Amino acid sequence: MCGICGFVNYLDRDFSKDINVMMNSIDHRGPDDFGSFICDNTKLNLGHRRLSIIDLSENGSQPMVSSDKSLVIVFNGEIYNHNELKNKFFSNSKNWRGTSDTEILLECILLLGLEKTLENLVGMFAFAVFDKNNKNIFLVRDRFGEKPCYFSFNDKFLYFASELKALKKISCIDKSIDTSSLKHQLNFGYIEKNKSIYKNISNLDPGTYLQFKLKNNSVELVKKIKYWDTLNEIRNSLSSKYNNKNQALDEIKKQFEKTISSQLVSDVEVGTFFSGGIDSSLVTAFASKIKKNKLKSFSISFDDQQYDESYFAKKIAKSLNVNLILTNMDKKKIIEIVPKMKDIFDEPFSDSSQLPTYFLSQLVSDHGLKVVLTGDGGDEIFGGYNRYFLMKRLQILKFIPYNFRNFISEILLKIPTNLWNYMDTIIRNSFIINKKIPNFSHKIAKFLSILKFKSEEDIFEKILETLSLTDILKKEYLKDNINLKKIESFQNIEDYMMYFDTVNYLPGDILVKVDRSTMSNGLEARSPFLDHNLFCKAWRLPTDYKLNKSSRKIILKEILSKEIDFKLLERPKMGFGIPLNDILRNELREWSINNIESGSLEKIDLIDPKKLKKLKNNFFKKNIGSYIPIWNILILSDWLKNNA
User: Model confidence over 511-524: pLDDT tens digits?
Assistant: First the structure.
């Protein structure tokens, strides 16, 4: 895992210092080593920051030149099947300078060509390859978007980097803000997978590569190739569904074992993120069985019991015989982390689980580890999110007349949200329920809004949003922000939701959160659930092998029940939340209000001042509403204050 950057610039001035500026800005991604390459006749500069994982010697240093001197690569990621590729395509007599996956990748491109190589890769990656002979440069990103690749170009220059902060330092790149990106962040908490906050900087689409030609002091985009199409792969898998559950169980388990085994390959110690949930428990269970030394697993606890899963984490860790390293994330630690978010993420990003993810990454790094396995991707692929569960139950709405639903919704939405919270307390006390439902009033308001919609697509969009644009934007900016395609390719809405989340929410939110949080701490995160071979097998599963009206991740629970007590798995999904409602209204109250009133939001023309004031007063003065919409606004305001 590393940081990459590079550029070619034919504008009439000296840009030679840009490569060092870019490399220095992403030094946290690769604290172990750095290097650069300059091609004098094309003015191409390549830079690399190295986090040494495979082949810790100088033989794995980058930029790396191919054996025939014709190709140069800067690579970020891991090729998990690099040894298989070596044995499959090369004779034993070939001389290798070292044992790095980068060298094997580079020699495969030289031997097979780029497209054939990409077909054979199992891994996560973003890389640039320069073909000296043909003066072509290729930018490549992995299938699901685990590794970022930001770029900006016109006919006179091309710049690319692992993080926006490297490109923000380049004077010739226009930093005009993209209004559609602002709207998407306010609406859903993140920026779309192939965009950035800036109009003229994009993030390469997952499963895609670009080919640029350098000639006559100009840059030409020759082609954009989508070498992996998630929807087509799903269609292929759906055409050969499993019809025997035991066979499905066996094949999924074997593939998962193979995946975990390949992702444990490292010349440094590998640990796991561990919440005690289904996904992280499964990853930890299989990793523990395969690993020779006792596995280190990392988890955090909270003082607020509605967010704390440490009881289950301890129980499951004990049954798996892993070394659980647990630390408490108290309010003081949360407060310390909040101001760092704008610099870590480079653009407005308001999934609040970014805070515990960063803290957990810091914990792992402080214990000297460089690599962790995570459970990311399990929810999207095996039907884990509560919204899939909810959508199955909402099928009953089809049998309730729309006019009646709309009437009920209009009436109940007029009830102040603080009364809903009071009712939550009464219900819990009446039924002796210890745990409060996080963001109860927000969830009730969202459910009541759902009653007003007719189509499944509209309901899904409402479930996804974290702040309604009608509550914050001026009227002239109130247009649809996302386009949910029709679902003819899928037999049911749940399958469509899993597909949509895989190609949007996963690369736009989850993988951004994990990459920035881990890499800012010099830590590599590997996601076994995103092995494309496992993905294709998972989509051969009938939907009812994944979820039904009473359970989620059914097949994963069956696999995991062979490793731990099944009773520990049967509990509601909690997510990775923190008590921000209380913190923003108290310890961070002054910071929050100052942020909103700083004038930074007035720098953009989107926000309706009256609506903003109403949201602020409701939350801070009347104690009404959830922190979720306010957090979106605060993150945007804090970013604008320092960047616009």
Answer: 999 999 999 999 99
What's the CA gap between 202 and 403, in Å, rounded? 44
Residue with tokens 């000297």: 368
Residue 418: predicted pLDDT: 65
CA distances from 193 to 186, 505, 509 (A): 15, 8, 8
Structure confidence at residue 603 (pLDDT): 83
Pair of tokens at residue 622? 């009347």
pLDDT computed for residue 550 by the predictor: 80
Instruction: Enumerate domains of the chain plus CATH numbers.
Output: 2-228 (3.60.20.10), 229-644 (3.40.50.620)
Paired tokens of 230: 């998630």
The residue that leads in pLDDT, 436 or 611, is 611
Q: In the 3-class helix/strand/coil scheme, how is 184-237 assigned residue by residue?
A: HHHHHCCCCCCCCCECCCEECCCCEEEEEEEECCEEEEEEEEECCCHHHHHHHH
509-539-447 Cα angle (round to 5): 50
Q: For the packed helices 101-112 and 82-89, what is the interaxial angle rounded to 10 degrees?
A: 40
Closest of 453, 459, 557, 460 to residue 505, by C-alpha: 460
* Alpha-carbon span 580 to 592, nearest angstrom: 11
| pLDDT of 457 strictly over 70 | yes
- 64: β partners: 73
d(CA 70, CA 544): 52
Determine whether 580 is exposed, middle or buried from the number of CB atoms within 10 Å of its CB (0-12, 13-18, 19+).
Answer: buried
DSSP one-letter code for 74: E
Backbone φ and ψ for 572, nearest 5 degrees, come out as -65, 150
Comparing 313-322, 562-571, 627-636, the range with the smallest average pLDDT is 562-571
Crossing angle for the helix pair 440-450 and 417-430, to the nearest 10 degrees: 110
Nearest of 149, 578, 574 to residue 354 by alpha carbon: 578
Alpha helices in 239-353 (DSSP H): 245-263, 278-290, 310-320, 331-337, 341-345
- Residue 38's nearest CA partner among 67, 2, 8 is 8
Which position has the higher pLDDT, 487 or 175? Answer: 175
* Averaged pLDDT of the chain: 91
Range 605-610 average pLDDT? 93
Rounded CA-CA distance 379/381 in Å is 6
